[in-house]
Amino acid sequence: MTTLDARGISCPEPLIMLQNALKTQAQLTLLVDSKAAHDNCEAFAKKQGFAVDTQKEGDIFKMLIAPKQ
């Protein structure tokens, strides 16, 4: 599974990275370190029909993005 590391990157770049990755990946993990990036990426993924499972580890949001079952 692919892991996108967008920690330390300001919006909208994490969202753009996610959009590009979802063109070729059915499932991935996205790491972000801001609430805004988490919220924007989660909203986008859900709108595209993906399920999002987020675990918060310290200041890091670890988001598993996968097709809904």
Question: Can you lay out the helices and strands and say which pair or pack?
Answer:
Blueprint: E1 2-5, H1 13-21, E2 28-32, H2 35-47, E3 50-57, E4 60-67
Parallel strand pairs: 1-2
Antiparallel strand pairs: 2-4, 3-4
Helix pairs in contact: 1-2
Structural account:
There is one protein chain. With 69 residues, the protein is of the alpha+beta class. It has one domain: Translation Initiation Factor IF3. It is built from two helices and four strands. Strands 1-2-4-3 form a four-stranded mixed β-sheet, covered by helices on one side. Strand 3 and strand 4 form a beta hairpin. It is globular, with a radius of gyration of 11 Å.
- Mean pLDDT equals 96
Q: CA-to-CA gap between the ends?
A: 17 Å
CATH topology: the name is: Translation Initiation Factor IF3
Number of domains: 1
Spans where pLDDT lies below 50 across 5 or more residues: none
CATH class: Alpha Beta
**Helix-and-strand structural type:** alpha+beta
Q: Provide the gyration radius in Å.
A: 11 Å
As laid out across the biggest beta sheet, the strand order is 1-2-4-3
Helical content band: 25-40%
Strand content: 35-45%
- Helix count, DSSP H or I runs of 4 or more residues: 2
What general form does the structure show? globular
For this structure, what is the CATH homologous superfamily? TusA-like domain
